[in-house]
Amino acid sequence: ARRARSKRMYAAAITLMAVGSLGIGGAIVMEIITHEPVYKVLMKFFPWVFGVGAVCLALAITGG
């Protein structure tokens, strides 16, 4: 049971980090192309998603 929970935590962490990375990249590309300030909000939001994924990954690695 603990191993299955750890695998789910790994999967969630990697997914959150990937979404965060893609969000940052997408926001930067859109900002460069369109010069719209709304994407600056995305550039502030997606690093938090990446950070939550990193914390989940750390918890999964340490078994917490």
Descriptive account of the structure:
By secondary structure, the protein is mostly helical. It has helices spanning 2-34, 38-62. The chain has one domain (2-62). The longest helix is centred in the N-terminal third of the chain and has 33 residues, at 2-34. The relative contact order is 0.22. The mean pLDDT is 83. The chain crosses the membrane at residues 12-33, 45-63. Keywords: Membrane, Transmembrane, Transmembrane helix.
Question: What's the number of extended β-strand segments?
Answer: 0
User: Rounded to an integer, what's the Rg over CA atoms?
Assistant: 15 Å
What's the overall average pLDDT, rounded?
83
Indicate the structural class.
mainly alpha
In DSSP terms (H or I, runs of 4 or more residues), the helix count works out at 2
Strand content: under 5%
Instruction: Provide the number of structural domains.
Output: 1
What key phrases describe this protein's structure?
mainly alpha, 64 residues
